[in-house]
Amino acid sequence: MRLGVLAFLQRETDSLNGRLLLLTATSGIANALNLAVINGAVESMQKGGPSWYHFLWFSLSIVLFVYSLRFIMYESSRITERAMYSVRVRLADKIRHADLLSLEAIGEADIHARISQDTAMIAQAARPLFAAAQGAVMVFCTIVYIAFISPVAMGLCVLLIVGGIGAYLKDKKRYESTLRKASEQEDELFGTLSGMLKGFKEVRLNRVKSDDLFDDFRQTANRVYDLRLGVAIKFSNNIVFTEMFFLLLLGAIVFVLPVLSTAFGESVTKIVAAILFFFGPLGNVVMIIPLLSQVNVTVTNLQRLEMTLDEALAKSSGRDEGPLHDYSGFQSIRFNNLGFSYPHADGGESFHVGPFNGTVRRGEILFLVGGNGSGKTTFMKLFTGLYQPERGAITVDDVTIGRADLQSYRNLFSAIFSDFHLFDKLHGLRNAEPERVAGLLRLMGISDKTSLADGAFSTTRLSTGQRKRLALVVAYLEDKPVYVFDEVAADQDPEFRSYFYETLLPELKQAGKTVLVVSHDDRYFHVADRVLKMDYGQLRDAAAPDSSNSPTQEPHP
């Protein structure tokens, strides 16, 4: 059968070397040798007493068995954990270099399931696999030992093993197909659960929505239950079938073969002992087969995720491995026929924005308004370089931003989106002065709610408004030339809202910062140099809706 997990471990660690294979074989041989030596010692005792010859061989086999088995267990743990480390770090590296649109298409649920659930499944199966390999060698050597005693008994053992494994393998493809379907349903289940947690407030407020969501979750869980239970029952039947064959084999050796051959009766004790000796290891070998079927599906899932990420990296800006350019001294950012369309499921286009033409100058304060679904978020992602335009280009002064320049361009921005995330640690700001952080926390009025210690905030479990203020602290510490604030003043008390518009924004402007603010606080529009309105994917100057004052006409502050 296809051992995808072995190919996976070799690819990730390159550690399935000759020494490991040799000691795996040595462990199995030494264990089988224990049986032969013990049987020989018992026979020797029946003829006159114990043999020191057998004792020395027994000591040697024990030492070989313990040393080789210990090496296999230690090495298998090292290989497994190294493979998990390798794949997790590599996938995380590709995720951080991927473009936002591709990650949105993959979905958080799929990524979480692959990196946590699937890698854990592989780790769970890898160690028993090495033990099963050692057991398989021991079973083979024991069968060879039985062949010296009775070729007929050896033939029955081989028939048993081939029949038992064949019972597993006959429906292997169907098993793996069912397991793949179960894996897909589990991804959907995880996505539903993730939505339940993210939308918990909405769920608790609406009983009908809560019941409907739970019913959807229960139906998906029931499909997973049916699929996995069906496979488990088939595997259980095969295990019972194999156990029955073992008992039939013992019965045939004890009750049938002595009748057919009188000479066989003298060896029946040795053969029964040998069969009982390899009964446990052979059971481990047989039991690993269904686990391998599940792991093969898991390895395929990981490979699929990595291939998707590789395709995304190939189509986007790649790994941003080129040298970074310093655009912080820019004077203007210009949009030239900039446009973007979301891909449609059937290959067509859905919502699109643009074309955008115009210039954002250094030190400007821009307000962006527009209804839900008008394209504001898409425009901000284009502006910050998180989305790559399908049409047109962005130029910084006289430099057209291409793929190789995207990361350098993104480094201009510090953004607080509506779905922003607060990290506990100040990543990228490890050298931030504690006094400055404490001063900013006081400035934002949250110094009594959280503090900085050892490069991490004491807590980020704050109210929505307080979390936005803490995000402002981080943005100030990043000290980027361009700031993007998406409804940061929302969820704030009137006093801080006034402070944000009347004090913080002018101070940023005075410091030479360019600020784009999504806001509907029209009482503070006078703070802006320009107010832009997004409507059905088109951008215009809200103060002058006619074309002569549109952003396409090179607007000025």
Report on the structure:
By secondary structure, this protein is α/β, with parallel strands linked by helices. It has 2 domains: 4-315, ABC transporter type 1, transmembrane domain (ABC transporter transmembrane region fold), CATH 1.20.1560; 332-553, Rossmann fold, CATH 3.40.50.300. Helices cover 62% and strands 12% of the residues. The strands form 3 sheets. Strands 6-9-10-3-11-12 form a 6-stranded mixed beta sheet. Strands 2-1-4-5 form a 4-stranded antiparallel beta sheet, with helices on one face. The longest helix has 54 residues, at 207-260. The protein starts with a helix and ends in a 16-residue tail after the last strand.
Short note summarizing the structure:
With 557 residues, the chain is α/β, with parallel strands linked by helices. 62% of the residues lie in helices and 12% in strands. The strands form 3 sheets. It has a 6-stranded mixed β-sheet. Strands 2-1-4-5 form a 4-stranded antiparallel β-sheet, covered by helices on one side.
Topology:
Layout: H1 4-13, H2 18-47, H3 52-97, H4 100-106, H5 108-149, H6 151-169, H7 172-198, H8 200-205, H9 207-260, H10 268-315, E1 332-343, E2 349-361, E3 365-369, H11 376-383, E4 391-396, E5 399-400, H12 406-410, E6 413-416, H13 434-443, E7 452-453, E8 456-457, H14 464-478, E9 482-486, H15 494-510, E10 514-518, E11 530-535, E12 538-541
Parallel strand pairs: 3-10, 3-11, 6-9, 9-10
Antiparallel strand pairs: 1-2, 1-4, 4-5, 7-8, 11-12
